[in-house]
Amino acid sequence: MEYYEDLLEKLKILNPGTKYFINRIFNKEKYSFLNECITLLKQINEKEGEVANMTKQQMRGKTEEFRKRISDGEPVDNFIIDGFALVREAAKRTLNMRHFDVQIIGGIVLYKGKIAEMSTGEGKTLVATLPLYLNALQGNGCHLVTVNDYLAKRDTQWMGPIFDYLGLSVGCIISYKEGKGLSSSSAFKFDLAYLPADSRFLYLYPVERKKAYQCDITYGIGSEFGFDYLRDNMAIRKEEQVQRKLYYAIIDEVDSILIDEARTPLIISGPSEEKPQLYYEIDRLVRKLVRDTDYIVDEEAQTSVLTEEGIRKCERLLGIKNLYDGSHTEIVHKINQALRAHTFFKRDKEYVVKDGQVIIVDEFTGRLMPGRKWSDGLHQAIEAKEGVPIESENQTLATISFQNYFKLYEKIAGMTGTAVTEAIEFKEIYKLDVIVVPTNKPLSRTEYNDEIYRTEKEKFISVTNEIKQMHEIGRPVLVGTISIEKAEKLSGYLRRNNIPHNVLHGKNHESEAGIIAQAGKFKAVTIATQMAGRGVDIILGGNPEIIAREETIKTIWSKKGSKDIVKKSDYSDVLEDLEKGYKNKIDVIEKEYGEKLSFLKSSLNEKEKIYSDLEGKAKEIFEKEIFKKTIEASFDKINTRLEKLKERYKNENSLLLSLQEKFKEKPERLKEPRETAGKAYRDYILYKKSIKKKYDIVLKEDIDEERNQLVEILGNFKNTPDFIKNLTTQINNYIDSLKKYSSLVEKTYPSLNLENQKKTTEKYIDLLTRFIKNTTEKKENIEQIYQQFEKEEEKLYENYLKDWEQAEKKIFTEHFPNLPSLEKEYLSILNEYEQLHKNYEEIIKKERDEYEKQRRKIEDQWQKAREELEKSPEEFKEIYETLLEKYKKPWEEEHQKVVSLGGLHVVGSERYEARRIDNQLKGRAGRQGDPGSSKFYLSLEDDLLRIFGSERLMGIMGKMPEGENITHPLITKMINNAQKKVEGRNFEIRKQLVEFDNVLNEQRNVIYSIRQDFLEGRNIDNYIREFIEEIINNLFDEFCNLSVKSFQWNIDGLKVAIKGFFNIDAEIPSVENISNAVVFRENLLQDIKNKIFSVLEEKQKEIGPFFYEIQRLIFLQVIDNRWKSHLRGIDELREGINLRVYAQRDPLLSYKHEGYQLFQQMLSAIKQEGISAIFNIKVSDEKFTMHAEKQKVSADFIHKQYEQFDTITQEGEQQTITQGPNAQPTVMVKQTPAVSGKKIGRNDPCPCGSGKKYKHCCGKNE
């Protein structure tokens, strides 16, 4: 009894709010749960002896008995004791592993739907078998979510025998990419009788994905569970859906999946048609910008903003008059992303370049994540920065966040080694309590106070000295760094001090197991990025089995590898030598080109500033002369005020620029100066606009603004009377402005020859006038008229701009004759800089390609050696056993020696922003009762202290002599507070993601529910009838509204609309002499409805039994296309929603409101397009074939990019529907891109669902 009381006391100490008597009142639920755990544990232990006497058949019989009783309504809770006892006994018999008592407690925590925090090495994989067995008895299926495909396969193979022994089936899913690389299947079922030639798939029998989900328990990677959910909601047949009802899931490394991974939503996407060349052009532009002069950086918010100087420079280099006039939003976005790429994303830290690709580095594990891409054009900006081929941007086809996906389960639980620091977030977002479970053996780890140094150099010197001391006495050291860059930097310090060591990071993850296996050896020094090697045990004295395995691979590699490569036996040494040679070559190139490029860039900025300032002055004089000539008598008074406002704005802007340099580390101090400068600018612009309006002055900037407005209106062209009226007004205003500007320039500079400019302007105005005339007079072929106008307008406007720019240059030269020579000097330096930079990039690319080619060759040979051992272990059994025997003999002695020295010593070279990551690093030492220690070293140059540290600490450290450090428990506490501050910020980011995604989640639930009804053929008749009723009612509200007189009703418009939607000619009597408009309207409405439903019934009879299938497929197609288009619109809305703050509106409320409007528009479009397509079905004598994969109702509806993704079914599945010999002709849908039965306008949304206009998508070749 005393044992259980001690265990309960340990639980109370580890779990805050349960230790004292008062907690029984204020934290009753948690207190009672801990007591319940101990009570259940005691009963399970008592049951152990009884279960031990059972045979295998008796144990399987118990499983069937439990299933029957549960199906009869008995609660699952009644079987905790018996179920856990059975699993424990099965583990003993199959794996020779018995669940410890603390593991039983962990199992109870997971079964109850909570998070179990269990230290590293405490056997969480085995713990999960307890609740999985119990929850699987209900027959709904249980999921074990892992962080990668390797663990999903390993855990299935490892734990599968337990479930198989008890009569439960086990499945495994891996990503399609992984499956195609290793075997022909991406789904497996555990089968002890399956013994393939490739031992990596031992017991994993390939099955269809659906069968893997039909197993009682399914292991898989988290993202694949989510992707399968999205794929299921893109299927066109019920039988293609693979998942069952989402019932219970255990999430392994729950902090990694629900916190780290949750920042990025799961997205199924297809490539869009973005042109990659623009990214390269923008990258070349950004390289010419100067930090703190052309753009300012906010490191805390991770944003870069162009200054006024930077905007002018960008406009000049791009040849754009106004970067922010609304027509260049894409360019502005790409500039911002390129600035982020150059400022915040460093090579060998956030990403690496490998095989000509930018590969993201996991910020927590340091591992590479091939296939992952940053969104919103950032990945493409980084690719342009690195000079590698740019992959196209993606268009979202389906999306869901991890938060909302796992909320779909009835019950979830999680397990990890570090969760308590994020307990509030787990509780608030997922309603999950965190329970800390004691270790099986007492923890024996010493944690020293942090040491803080002034500079990074001083810190690394101190870390090196610490490692040197430990190495001299033989104690193993594991050093944690936050990036590949820092790992290699520290490695350089150790090499200079002749300290042998291994470096583990994303670049050499292939040798991870071998490096980590030796991290506990006598005198071993290992540098690892953050959580590298997570999941691999560090055994003091080394792991002889893994070492023997790695040595066997080396033997195979040295025998079968190329002689020119395999000169050393150690794989990591070969890679290190190759990389060292590559870096030396790069250093030489950098030295040769760096100074020249830097000098030219400085000269370029100097010349650009001189030329830009002078051109700006010329422009001011030009505008002032126009004002003077127009205003005349009142000019001096108005100009004085205008100059004062301009001077005030310039002064405030200069002050802001100087403060930006002063407070670049504290951007919050710039809020007031920014607002003041912004107000000064607005005052100046508003006054200038009021003067222009009062005296009817038009400048070139006004022409540009009006033209942009016209382009925006034309982009949404509609052939309706109201639209044509508004368009006519806009064009007339534009024509007036063109005439006024020409007249004002001629009046101001009478001696200037403007014949060419006037002719170009007349041509342009003539085109605009003809377009107005054609659109107002002609009712037919409006679309063709618009298409022709669009082509001619763009060409004439370019000529107009070119001619008037020449005129302006002549005027500017009159005021400043040296302006052309300054422009020539500037362009000369610009060309020289660009040519030199081009040569530099070509040489760098050549060296990088050669390095990657050699590295890839080495890695391929190493991987082949590894695969050869894994596929055919029997062939190399003798070599392995010889090596194992060799390493086993000295292991005992070395193990005791390392233990006596104090075990593994962990050195943190920097604090991470999240405490749990530091805890994971510390957790590498002192495992399973082993001794160990940890210590962290920091500097004021570390990101955490530089951005979030206190000013007081900065002040103290600044006065200390070089090499001195501060060590005190209060300092450690202060650093923890800084980490809490960052954690709080990150929590708010994730919380905001949830709040915004909840808006889309509600819409997703509605649309997926409707889609599922059509997929399963439920209530289709009711849906069709409801949609028809709604459409016809809306048409009558639009064309025959009772709020206006009956003679004002648009009867012709109603007839056209009914013809378009329902393909019927409505007979509508005259409304001129009706006595009662209400009665007339109601009767007419009912008559038309009756006729529509009558036509629908005739069509159903004509087509026959396949009519319902056709309706189903049409609506599935329309729903998918419109949903994809809606997702694109939501993405665009989300991108700019924070700008609503400037209008004193809450962005979240605005997002909800505007998102709801977009959703309603989408629902309306689905109903209209679907009904229109049904009424435009044509009957053919040809056989109707439906392809279950990728092909839907009409081939023209399917966007060509969509075919690149396996989102529906696997290849080769095809269904053909035929009829009996005496049946009516088969039905096929007319293959035309027109959903509504009428020709698609070039500016209408493309029916493929890409979200683009038809003319820029499927109709661009027409």
Give a structural overview:
The protein is of the alpha/beta class. It is built from 41 helices and 25 strands. α6 crosses α8. It starts with a helix and ends in a 46-residue tail after the last strand. It is globular, with a radius of gyration of 36 Å. The strands form 6 sheets. A 9-stranded mixed beta sheet has the order 5-4-3-6-2-7-15-1-16, with helices on both faces. Strands 17, 18, 19, 20, 21, 22 and 23 form a 7-stranded parallel beta sheet that branches.
Question: What's the helix and strand layout?
Answer:
Blueprint: H1 2-14, H2 23-26, H3 28-52, H4 56-71, H5 80-95, H6 101-111, E1 115-117, H7 124-127, H8 129-136, E2 142-146, H9 149-165, E3 170-173, H10 176-182, E4 187-190, E5 204-206, H11 209-213, E6 217-221, H12 222-232, E7 248-252, H13 254-260, E8 266-271, H14 277-286, E9 295-298, E10 303-306, H15 308-318, H16 329-344, E11 351-354, E12 357-361, E13 368-369, H17 378-386, E14 394-400, H18 402-406, E15 411-416, H19 423-430, E16 434-436, E17 444-447, E18 451-453, H20 456-473, E19 477-481, H21 484-496, E20 502-504, H22 512-517, E21 525-529, H23 544-560, H24 571-631, H25 635-662, H26 671-694, H27 700-714, H28 721-748, H29 755-777, H30 782-815, H31 819-871, H32 877-901, E22 904-908, H33 915-922, E23 931-939, H34 943-948, H35 951-958, H36 969-1016, H37 1020-1039, H38 1051-1062, H39 1077-1103, H40 1107-1136, H41 1147-1175, E24 1185-1186, E25 1215-1216
Parallel strand pairs: 1-15, 1-16, 2-6, 2-7, 3-6, 7-15, 17-23, 18-23, 19-21, 19-22, 20-21, 22-23
Antiparallel strand pairs: 3-4, 4-5, 8-14, 9-10, 11-12, 12-13, 24-25
Helix pairs in contact: 1-3, 3-5, 3-6, 5-8, 5-9, 6-8, 14-16, 14-17, 16-17, 23-31, 23-32, 24-28, 24-30, 24-31, 25-26, 27-28, 28-29, 29-30, 36-40, 36-41, 37-38, 37-39, 37-41, 40-41
